[in-house]
């Protein structure tokens, strides 16, 4: 055996570039850590990028070491079900939403598998959950049309927002601002964390002119996730449809539409990507995603430049959303609601199912994607290839 | 009381330190410094006094704020924290609800200035202030209860005297604004303040200009934020047990983006965020495990390479030495394969027992550890490492031990690759590679017809002295400078490589072709020497050089270097010497030289044409030109390579493109042109390419295989009948094992060259008579230098020309173009002549076919049909020419309206300079019926076909203008001299051909299609044709000009000598040529599609204006000098005329076909079966002559024929199913107005009154609900579609349906509907797409013509066909008054029609169907002025 585990050349660093992003390949595929046919539903890295926690439809929580690519621990949450696992700022504890029993959010200590606290308040399923990047508060959005702000130390909500429709929430990386996306109206509301109960200070309407060109009436996709880029400049608006949006987080303008290239021979004007079409038959498809497949599948890279997204066909798409001006490729469309970006790379990822969750490691150049299996992706740093060691 | 400030601070959750002295101390820390996110300016004058009525502490706070800067005054949060004074709050209340609170405020007004109240407020901020805390629960509801006690009456005291010493000096008090954030009325959480507008306005305007009024919360819910929670209070001493909430942002004045604030904390935080994001990521790699996607890495190496021992050291000695480190799995001592001695290289692999598997890793590892302890297992890698560490430098074996050798060298070599490489290197060192086999110098050629094969490697021998000198010194001179065999050894490395001779063995992977894109073009570029860049020529030279200066030149390569600017082949330098002449030797074959010259000349011409074409942008010209060029090219190509197999080689630039020159079957088709006329040249050219082949074979130098094609083909056909063509690739694959170099082919067989000398022999032995693709291959092994033709010796070319030659000749004869008798030598002119004839004959064919297929046949059938229907009602029967048969006329008329068919010009050849009275022929007149009044007829016809002809002529005209070399843009500019010279050249052609009595069409062809347009119109002025003639060329286009210059003589239809008679039946050659002459035009017209018609039309219109003038001047055409404008006009006219004449001819032909004019036997012809028939035929003919219809038209039928109602073909409507109503019928039957029709006869609507009554009732019933909704809207400031839908559903709009002016039934409003109101919901069954598809088909089958399917989304469709409401009757309008929206109510999508504009009663309700664009158009009947004409 060669060097045991973690050949983590911690000294070697790299800056993400389109070449590196395009060179990502699955380095690890975990197939035996979930029940067959039951998908992983959410992924979360801890702050240091060392551990990955997953939630699955089989009501297990898996803990992986992201540095070594090894499975560490399996925890069950059979009683409550598990969804939206999120690391707190301590890598020994997570919060997660429930799928059974009630709709509490649960604070779980990993090392002893004890629930520290239940956060009670939501009356319907929680569909969006995020820890504050700066402190021990977190936000949750649920299908009871409320957004709640919590503190890890208190089991009752520290704030409540009544919204119309199922919200998805996201924290600004500075922690001063959070965004609430309303799928019903394709609206994103930006709130000051200190005064959110008053009113949002910015109201962003996602009005996609392309959609209305394609069909009449336009089939507006349902917003299922929001994410601020790490530099705080952009908001990634994930939908369950075939298009995601990138919005300027300061002025609210749509900067880009993210689509994938349609399959050759397909009649649809856009590539098929959205996850929700798999769940419900079209007739029964609800307008609001009731904790459907979507919401975990599009993520920023830590540098806030690329977006990595899963899709219904299991592919992993990589968009170059915000290239710095000097690296901007020629013919890069200027930011506008019509600016449609196609993936710089679409990698065949998960076979036989959607890639439901994607998470990019905040510290290392790897990401994880999950569908019916879990994959750790690493760039293939070839000889003389893409990577340029930054330091 | 430490809890107090904490509680107060929490509304803003500020990071302020405790503010004990907040109100009273002038030097207190300013809250504004931390809360500067709001830039509010209390600019309202009316508000300012309220600040002034404050107590002194407040004023001091105000002063402070102003010091900070009013523009960045502290925010509402500041206000909340800094001044939660009751008076301030009460002021806010006043502001917020002036109506209700103002009176009491007025009463309480002076309380604010009363001394006791001031201190009390100020002390409320102090930690010790019990009162401040008591009332400051910050719950609006609580506050409301105690508010009256401390309320100040702002409105009553707007100008209250300042109670503080310094407050008067302060113009503004921002604090006072900020201090008012208590909304005491919790029942109206979102009620917008209705105080002075200026107060509220600035607060919202800058903060959220784009803020929607939607807050997205349902009625009665409240947002909250926890102000204080003991659970989250980190301090051990809790401030209270209760959680303190703040509801709906109470106390917050305005919300701004905190990220945009300039607070240092926030700025630094944002900076941190950015830096964090910019941090590079760590790179990790994962060690391989079972989850890895990559295959397992190879185990660590456990083998070593031992070198450096002498040959005398035995393998056993090495083994015994190295087995000391561990068990050896295998040992490989490399030996010299030639001598058997040791190479001094040994590879040793140790046994590796370490388990590598992952599955049972633990057990295996334990076992391994156990065994290792026992000594029965070893880790191979460790052992190898040890061997390297310890064995290096050791002396192994006795021989070494006792020598002074430095000891062995041991290195890791896990796979043995190192050792192999070392062994090979050692072998190479010991036995240097044998020199590549030197080839024998070739024997001198025995005949002059073959080239000297050059040796493949090494210095080339000097050319044999016996070789003839084919060229004169003048030719040789330039060549000798470059053709020395040694002068450029390295110019084309691949052609000089000693071995292999040329290029890589894979012939497909040859060096990139050096020539430009043009050279790659298939046919036209082939002879185009100019397209070869210099690199091509440079790569060629070595191949010539190889031949020595005296060596014959390959026929194809030499001219490819030729710059095309050389005027004559005779003067051409050797660099582009004639291709045909070189190889034959000038002295012994003059024919070949002549051919070569001709070829070169033809090439030159083609190049010129090509250049000309390139200069022109006209697509049509191009296409036309390319036809001619292709013909020429084919000819030239064929001249060079009649054995078409070698054509590729010829067209390529020889060595430079190492390709397979292999074509399974000779491509005869492109070369038809040449074979037709040039049999002897054929043989010579074949010989030439044969020479090239031989040269290629000689280049290889190795023995090669030749395969007889004839025998092979014969065997194949014997076996299988018609066998499929053989593919070169297959053959190559067949020989793939034998290191073939290249494959060649010619008519006689295939030739395979090999890389190595023995390969040919081997292949011969292996594959001789072995079947290949169905037949045994007859291989012939040939020596390297002299290719032996498989069936015929190269010196004896097949005497028989290609078999199709004869047939072609026959065809040519039949076409009236006699084969040229010239067989020896070709001049430029002859070649051109030949080409022309070929082209003409082709064009004649094409045209004839075209006329037959496209014009005559169609017209005949069409006319027949018309005739049979009861006589043509064309105006022809009543035209001025009574005796004219109606049929040709109508045919001609319809022909003249054919869009894409050129009309033949009417032109007659003038006899020398003799002015010939020419007449613009009237195409209205057939040959049988010459017109007495041609001018009139022409006039008429002109008026009929004016547009078309103008269109055509202008198009041409324009083209000609663009094509002309002068590119004159000015209309009035006279033609420049260059043009004149060109014209004169044209004239020479023209007149000479005239003198020869040729047909003019020949001229047009001989001058080549490019020149047709510029040249012909210019001909009149340059030839001494008098004005009438020139007019005859172009006049017919304009009737005005006809009148201006009446023709000298009348009645000449086709003008001049060409009588009308020979036009029919089998056209004699002349006529055929005339047709042929215009065939290019036809091709033109046919190919005119690429030209955007609209553009052409526009152009035509534009030019129509200018084109008219010259005709008016035509009358005084006494000047030979035509302005360009005139020329153009003339040309256009000529074109138009020509096309017209063509059309007429076709018509006449049609007439001819229809009506036998001679006196044939009617019985024989089948016209009449018996006498009775004959009688009726005669009768019909009489009628015909009298200008009536042949068939007597039946008397006009009475009533029922004209009855508009349709008749049922089956006799019963029930059995008919349904009738398809056409658009025209719909249009005809639609009501005149779009108003709703009265329901009953009396004109009043019965439904109206009841509808109104119902509406009133409904209104009454739902009034309360509506009010509640309005209230809710006000309260929540929400105005969603959902709400609107719900609201409007309560009272339906009064609608009715009636016959619509648009189509069928429509929906009409019966009351006024305001814009934005909901009109109706489109109700129907919600079905899936698949169901909808099926239903649509079913409905169609049932004859339900209207579609009531409304798509909701990509999967759902609302089908209102069977179940629905009035909404389905709404018609489409391109400018509708409603719009359809899809809204989601309780998760169900609904289609709701909303009014877009105000809809008046009786107005039809319409919306835009928004059909997707489709090829198949649905016409729109909305009749709106802005109608788009189609729904889709």
Automatic annotation (TrEMBL), chain A:
Keyword set includes Cell inner membrane: no
GO biological process, one term: DNA-templated transcription termination
Domain of life: Eukaryota
Nucleus is among the record's keywords: yes
Family matches, as SMART domains: WD40
GO cellular component, one term: Set1C/COMPASS complex
Localization (cell): Nucleus
Primary location: nucleus
Family membership noted in the UniProt record: Belongs to the WD repeat SWD2 family.
GO MF: chromatin binding
Ranges occupied by WD repeats: 119-153, 298-321
InterPro entries attached to this UniProt entry: Swd2/WDR82, WD40/YVTN_repeat-like_dom_sf, WD40_PAC1, WD40_repeat_CS, WD40_repeat_dom_sf, WD40_rpt
Signal peptide: none
Pfam families: WD40 (PF00400)
The name this protein goes by in its record: WD40 repeat-like protein
Record keywords, A-Z: Nucleus, Repeat, Transcription, Transcription regulation, Transcription termination, WD repeat
From TrEMBL, chain B:
Pfam families the record matches: N-SET, RRM_1, SET
Keywords assigned: Chromatin regulator, Methyltransferase, Nucleus, S-adenosyl-L-methionine, Transferase
Region entry Disordered, spans: 1-212, 419-590, 784-806, 869-1006, 1187-1250
Biased composition (Basic residues): 951-964
Biased composition (Basic and acidic residues): 132-144
Domain Post-SET: 1416-1432
Compartment annotation: Nucleus
Cross-referenced SMART domains: N-SET, RRM, SET
A GO MF label: RNA binding
Signal peptide annotation: none
Compositionally biased intervals (Polar residues): 31-46, 474-497, 540-561, 871-880
Residues annotated as domain SET: 1293-1410
EC number: 2.1.1.354
GO annotation, biological process: methylation
Biased composition regions of type Low complexity, renumbered to the chain: 1-22, 54-85, 196-212, 523-539, 913-933
Reaction(s) catalysed by this chain's protein: N(6)-methyl-L-lysyl(4)-[histone H3] + S-adenosyl-L-methionine = N(6),N(6)-dimethyl-L-lysyl(4)-[histone H3] + S-adenosyl-L-homocysteine + H(+); N(6),N(6)-dimethyl-L-lysyl(4)-[histone H3] + S-adenosyl-L-methionine = N(6),N(6),N(6)-trimethyl-L-lysyl(4)-[histone H3] + S-adenosyl-L-homocysteine + H(+); L-lysyl(4)-[histone H3] + 3 S-adenosyl-L-methionine = N(6),N(6),N(6)-trimethyl-L-lysyl(4)-[histone H3] + 3 S-adenosyl-L-homocysteine + 3 H(+)
Record bears the keyword Nucleus: yes
A single GO cellular-component term on record: Set1C/COMPASS complex
Start-end of Pro residues biased regions: 433-446, 453-468, 790-801
Name by which UniProt lists this protein: Histone-lysine N-methyltransferase, H3 lysine-4 specific
């Amino acid at each position: 055996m060669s060097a045991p585990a973690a050949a983590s050349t911690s000294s070697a660093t790299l800056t993400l570039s389109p070449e590196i992003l395009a060179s990502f390949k699955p380095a690890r595929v975990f197939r035996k850590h979930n029940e067959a046919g039951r998908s992983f539903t959410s992924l979360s890295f801890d702050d240091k990028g060392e551990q990955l926690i997953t939630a699955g439809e089989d009501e297990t929580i898996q803990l992986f070491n992201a540095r070594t690519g090894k499975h560490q621990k399996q925890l069950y949450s059979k009683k409550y079900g598990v969804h939206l696992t999120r690391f707190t700022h301590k890598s020994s504890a997570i919060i997660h939403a429930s799928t059974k029993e009630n709709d509490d959010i649960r604070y779980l200590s990993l090392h002893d598998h004890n629930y520290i606290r239940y956060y009670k308040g939501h009356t319907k399923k929680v569909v969006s959950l995020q820890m504050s990047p700066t402190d021990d508060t977190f936000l949750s959005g649920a299908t009871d049309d409320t957004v709640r702000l919590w503190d890890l130390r208190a089991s009752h909500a520290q704030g409540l927002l009544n919204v119309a429709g199922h919200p998805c929430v996201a924290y600004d990386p500075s922690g001063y601002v959070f965004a609430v996306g309303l799928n019903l109206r394709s609206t994103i509301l930006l709130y000051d964390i200190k005064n959110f109960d008053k009113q949002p200070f910015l109201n962003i309407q996602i009005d996609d002119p392309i959609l209305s060109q394609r069909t009449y009436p336009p089939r507006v996709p349902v917003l299922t996730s929001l994410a601020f880029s790490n530099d705080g400049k952009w908001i990634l608006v994930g939908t369950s449809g075939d298009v995601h949006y990138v919005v300027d987080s300061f002025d609210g303008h749509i900067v880009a539409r993210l689509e994938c290239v349609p399959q050759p021979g397909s009649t649809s004007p856009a590539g098929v990507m959205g996850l929700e079409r798999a769940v419900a038959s079209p007739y029964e498809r609800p307008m609001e995603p009731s904790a459907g497949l979507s919401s975990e599948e599009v993520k920023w890279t830590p540098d806030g430049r690329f977006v990595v997204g899963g899709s219904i066909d299991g592919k992993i798409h990589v968009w170059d959303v915000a290239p710095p001006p000097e690296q901007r490729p020629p013919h890069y469309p200027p930011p506008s609601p019509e600016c449609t970006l196609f993936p710089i790379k679409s990698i065949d990822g998960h076979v036989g199912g959607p890639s439901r969750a994607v998470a990019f490691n905040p510290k290392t150049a790897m990401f994880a994607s999950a569908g019916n299996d879990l994959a750790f992706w690493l760039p293939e740093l070839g000889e003389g290839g893409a990577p340029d060691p930054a330091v | 009381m430490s809890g107090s400030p904490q509680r107060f601070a929490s509304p803003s959750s500020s990071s302020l330190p405790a503010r004990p002295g907040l109100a009273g101390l002038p030097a207190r820390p300013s809250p504004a410094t931390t809360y500067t996110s709001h830039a509010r300016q209390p600019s309202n004058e009316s508000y300012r006094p309220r600040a002034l009525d404050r107590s002194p502490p407040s004023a001091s706070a105000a002063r402070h704020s102003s010091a900070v800067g009013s523009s960045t005054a502290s925010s509402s949060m500041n206000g909340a924290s800094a001044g939660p004074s009751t008076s301030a709050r009460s002021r806010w209340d006043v502001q917020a609800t002036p109506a209700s609170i103002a009176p009491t405020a007025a009463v309480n007004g002076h309380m604010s200035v009363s001394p006791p109240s001031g201190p009390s407020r100020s002390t409320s901020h102090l930690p010790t202030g019990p009162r401040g805390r008591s009332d400051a629960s910050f719950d609006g509801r609580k506050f409301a209860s105690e508010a009256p006690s401390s309320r100040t009456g702002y409105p009553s005291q707007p100008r209250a005297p300042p109670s503080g010493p310094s407050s008067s000096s302060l113009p503004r008090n921002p604090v006072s604004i900020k201090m008012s954030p208590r909304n005491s009325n919790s029942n109206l959480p979102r009620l917008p303040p209705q105080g002075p507008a200026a107060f509220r306005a600035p607060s919202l305007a800058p903060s959220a200009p784009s803020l929607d009024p939607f807050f997205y919360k349902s009625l009665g819910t409240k947002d909250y934020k926890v102000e204080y929670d003991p659970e989250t209070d980190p301090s051990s001493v809790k401030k209270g047990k209760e959680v303190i909430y703040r509801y709906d942002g109470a106390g917050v004045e305005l919300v701004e983006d905190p990220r945009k604030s300039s607070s240092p904390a926030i700025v630094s935080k944002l900076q941190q965020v950015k830096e964090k994001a910019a941090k590079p990521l760590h790179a990790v790699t994962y060690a391989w495990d079972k989850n890895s996607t990559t295959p397992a890495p190879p185990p660590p190496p456990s083998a070593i390479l031992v070198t450096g021992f002498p040959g005398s050291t035995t393998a056993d000695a090495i083994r015994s030495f190295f087995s000391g480190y561990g068990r050896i799995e295998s040992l490989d001592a490399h030996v010299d394969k030639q001598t058997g001695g040791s190479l001094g290289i040994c590879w040793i692999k140790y046994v590796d027992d370490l388990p590598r598997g992952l599955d049972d890793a633990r057990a295996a590892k334990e076992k391994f550890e156990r065994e290792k302890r026992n000594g029965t297992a070893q880790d191979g890698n460790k052992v190898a490492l040890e061997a390297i560490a310890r064995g290096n430098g050791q002396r192994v074996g006795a021989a070494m031990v006792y020598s002074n050798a430095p000891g062995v060298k041991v290195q890791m070599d896990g796979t043995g690759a190192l050792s192999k490489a070392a062994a090979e290197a050692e072998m190479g060192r010991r036995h240097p590679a044998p020199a590549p086999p030197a080839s024998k110098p070739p024997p001198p050629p025995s005949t002059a017809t073959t080239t000297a094969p050059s040796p493949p490697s090494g210095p080339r021998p000097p050319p044999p002295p016996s070789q003839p000198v084919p060229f004169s010194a003048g030719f040789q001179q330039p060549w000798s400078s470059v053709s020395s065999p040694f002068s450029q050894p390295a110019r084309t490395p691949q052609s000089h490589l000693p071995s292999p001779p040329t290029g890589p063995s894979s012939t497909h992977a040859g060096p990139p072709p050096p020539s430009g894109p043009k050279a790659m073009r298939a046919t036209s570029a082939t002879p185009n020497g100019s397209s070869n860049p210099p690199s091509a020529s440079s790569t060629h030279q070595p191949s010539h050089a190889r031949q020595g200066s005296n060596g014959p030149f390959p026929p194809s390569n030499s001219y490819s270097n030729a710059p095309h600017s050389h005027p004559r082949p005779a003067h051409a330098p050797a660099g582009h010497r004639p291709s045909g002449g070189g190889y034959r030797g000038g002295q012994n074959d003059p024919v070949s030289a002549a051919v070569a010259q001709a070829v070169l000349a033809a090439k030159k011409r083609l190049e010129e044409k090509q250049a000309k074409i390139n200069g022109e942008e006209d697509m049509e010209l191009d296409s036309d030109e390319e036809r001619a060029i292709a013909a020429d090219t084919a000819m030239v190509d064929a001249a060079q390579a009649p054995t078409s197999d070698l054509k590729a080689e010829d067209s390529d630039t020889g060595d430079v493109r190492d390709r397979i020159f292999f074509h399974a079957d000779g491509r005869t088709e492109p070369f038809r042109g040449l074979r037709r006329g040039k049999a002897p040249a054929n043989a010579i050219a074949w010989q030439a390419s044969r020479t090239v082949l031989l040269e290629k074979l000689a280049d290889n130098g190795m023995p090669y295989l030749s395969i007889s094609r004839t025998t092979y083909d014969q065997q194949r056909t014997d076996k299988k009948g018609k066998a499929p063509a053989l593919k070169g690739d297959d053959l190559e694959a067949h020989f793939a094992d034998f290191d073939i170099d290249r494959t060649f082919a010619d008519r006689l067989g295939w030739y395979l060259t090999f890389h190595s000398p023995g390969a040919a022999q081997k292949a011969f032995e292996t594959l001789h008579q072995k079947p290949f693709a169905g037949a045994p291959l007859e291989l012939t092994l040939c020596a390297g230098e002299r290719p032996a033709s498989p069936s015929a010796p190269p010196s004896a070319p097949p005497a028989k020309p290609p078999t199709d030659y004869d047939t072609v000749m026959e065809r040519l004869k039949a076409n009236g173009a006699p084969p040229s008798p010239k067989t020896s030598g070709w001049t430029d002119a002859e070649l051109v002549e030949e080409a022309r004839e070929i082209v003409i004959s082709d064009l004649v064919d094409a045209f004839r076919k075209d006329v037959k297929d496209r014009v005559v046949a169609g017209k005949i059938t069409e006319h027949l049909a018309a005739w049979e229907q009861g006589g043509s009602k064309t105006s022809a029967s009543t035209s001025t020419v009574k005796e004219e048969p109606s049929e040709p006329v109508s045919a001609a008329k319809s022909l003249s309206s054919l869009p894409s068919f050129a009309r033949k010009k009417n032109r007659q050849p003038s006899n020398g300079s003799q002015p010939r009275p020419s007449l613009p022929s009237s195409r209205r007149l057939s040959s049988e019926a010459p017109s007495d009044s041609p001018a009139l007829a022409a006039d008429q016809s002109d008026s009929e076909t004016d547009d078309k002809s103008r269109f055509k002529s202008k198009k041409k005209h324009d083209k000609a203008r663009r094509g002309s070399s002068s590119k004159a843009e000015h209309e009035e500019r006279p033609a420049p001299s260059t043009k004149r010279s060109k014209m004169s050249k044209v004239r020479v052609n023209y007149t000479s051909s005239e003198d020869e009595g040729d047909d003019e069409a020949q001229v047009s062809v001989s001058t080549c299609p490019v020149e047709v347009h510029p040249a012909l119109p210019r001909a009149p002025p340059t030839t001494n044709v008098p004005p009438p003639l020139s007019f005859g060329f172009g006049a017919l286009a304009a009737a005005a000009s006809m009148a201006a210059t009446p023709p000298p003589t009348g009645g000449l239809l086709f003008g001049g000598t060409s009588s009308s008679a020979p036009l029919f039946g089998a056209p004699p050659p002349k006529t055929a040529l005339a047709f042929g002459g215009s065939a290019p035009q036809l091709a033109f017209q046919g190919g005119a599609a690429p030209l955007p018609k609209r553009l052409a039309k526009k152009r035509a219109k534009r030019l129509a204006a200018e084109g008219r003038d010259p005709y008016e001047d035509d009358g005084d055409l006494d000047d030979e000098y035509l302005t360009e404008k005139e020329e153009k006009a003339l040309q256009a006219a000529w074109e138009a005329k020509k096309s017209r004449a063509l059309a007429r001819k076709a018509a006449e032909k049609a007439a001819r076909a229809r009506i036998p004019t001679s006196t044939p036997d009617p019985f024989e012809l089948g016209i009449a079966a018996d006498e009775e028939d004959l009688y009726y035929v005669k009768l019909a003919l009489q009628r015909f002559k009298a200008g009536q219809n042949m068939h007597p038209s039946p008397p006009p039928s009475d009533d029922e024929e004209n009855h508009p109602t349709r008749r049922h073909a089956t006799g019963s409507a029930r059995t008919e199913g349904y009738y398809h109503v056409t658009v025209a019928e719909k249009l005809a039957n639609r009501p005149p107005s779009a108003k709703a029709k009265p329901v009953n006869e009396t004109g009043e609507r019965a439904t109206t009154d009841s509808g109104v009554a119902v509406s009133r009732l409904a209104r009454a019933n739902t009034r309360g609900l509506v009010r509640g909704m309005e209230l809710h809207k006000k309260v929540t400031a929400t105005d969603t579609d959902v709400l609107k839908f719900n609201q409007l559903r309560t009272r339906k709009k009064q609608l009715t349906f009636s016959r619509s002016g648009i189509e069928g039934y429509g929906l009409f409003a019966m009351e006024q509907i305001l814009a934005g109101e909901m009109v109706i919901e489109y109700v129907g069954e919600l079905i899936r797409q698949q169901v909808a598809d099926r239903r649509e088909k079913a409905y169609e089958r049932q004859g339900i013509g209207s579609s009531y399917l409304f798509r909701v989304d990509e999967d759902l469709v609302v089908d209102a066909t069977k179940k629905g409401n009035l909404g389905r009757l709404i018609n489409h309008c391109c400018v509708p008054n409603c719009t359809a929206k899809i809204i989601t109510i309780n998760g169900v999508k609904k289609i709701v029609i909303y009014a877009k504009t105000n809809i008046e009663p009786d107005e039809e309700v319409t919306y835009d169907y928004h059909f997707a664009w489709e090829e198949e158009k649905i016409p729109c009947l909305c009749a709106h002025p802005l109608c788009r004409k189609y729904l889709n």
